[in-house]
Amino acid sequence: MSVEPSPQSPWQAATIARIEKRTPRVTSFWFRPSRPVAHLAGQHVDIRLTAPDGYQARRSYSIASAPEAGAAIELAIERLDDGEVSPFFHDVAAVGDEIELRGPLGGHFIWQESDGGPILLVGGGSGVVPLMAMVRHRTLRNNAVPVALVFSARVWDEVIFRDELIGLDDRRDGFDLVLTLTREPARRPSDYSRRVDARMMAQAIERLPKAPKLAYVCGSNAFVSAAANALIGAGVPAEIIRTERYGV
Amino acid sequence: MVTRGFFSGRRPPSDTDARIPPGQYLEQGFPVLSAGPTPRVRTEDWSFTLKQGPRPIKKWNWAEFNALPQSKMTRDIHCVTAWTKFNTPWQGVMVDDILADAGVEPPTAYTLALSFDGYSTNVPTKDLVTGKAMVALLYEGKPITSDHGGPARLLVPHLYFWKSAKWVNGLQFTERDEPGFWELRGYHMYGDPWREQRYSSDP
Fold first, then answer.
1. Which pLDDT tens digit goes with each residue over B96-111?
2. Which of A51, A135, A169, B140 would bridge A177 by S-S if both were Cys, CB 3.0 to 4.6 A apart?
3. Alpha-carbon gap, residue A213 to B87, rounded angstroms
4. What ipTM, to 2 d.p.?
């Protein structure tokens, strides 16, 4: 039933090794590629689904796992009700399934130790995924670069990687988590309950020992536009802001 | 490789099949993608420069550029992130008319499109002339919004849409095919959607 791609094909089969629900709308899938791949924190892979009649659908998904996390790469996929690929993952895909994957890809929205810091990360909803790879990479490398992550979610239960992020925040090792909930009161004393704005960004920057060297913003187009404007309003130079938008 | 349990899909109507390149899906909206914050370029600060290497050939301000002959192009566009949008209507100045106003023939085989935010992208010169490309000023008859690249963006609709540089402020003729912003970051030097030239490793 499954035909191996030709050796020169950039596509390869990857086996779903594990599935874990993260929030009501986001589930993590761990893919074990048949040919091991090395990725950088912030990169994405392309996924291709093929129907029996040959019809194919492909989408890009950011990698959530750190480069050093092991052979399986974690993709945290949000269910889009009118989507074509995400409902397949949420409703059909099972451990052991083979999925075609290409990558890792992307050379802009990445953070490596050599990039240094401090860094300011701003994520909206599942836009946190590539930022999570950066945070995890920093932790696993015992890197001391100061990092502030401003993570906007609608409600507490939609904060992806919540326990892990709060655990990292509690280490007080230079990683600072700022949560802002747009449809619920804040749960932690230092968190917010509103959409991102310039004052919130200025306060996040104050948590860093000095001005950020790089800022990374990821989320929906509306979120990224608002967050990038908020950063510029807080005095962050446009040249150091890297954005990744879902498009819509 | 057939994917277990994947049947449904969002197949385009069969009469439009021939207009959708491989790996693309039909999008009704107009998604926004960019590598950085959206620059707000005021038309009073806008200019467009034609260059050969570092040497300027001619520079236009907003009023001068808008006084050039304007043309309309309605085209299907294809983004490397896999969406295709049909019948996007643009109006602007054909690259042919920019060259004619400057009084030059294309001096080299390669061009870099340059943008206000430091973005650049490379396009062979032959893909910009003979009616293939324009610097667009209007979309659907209205000024192009800043998130879609206004006041002016390049339109090279037969290549993946990252080649249609947003916030364009110049064309620079180069002796060699110099990679631009995304081409330095793993994307294809040419970007033909019909040959699915998305990434640098694609043939």
1. 999 999 999 999 999 9
2. A169
3. 42
4. 0.90
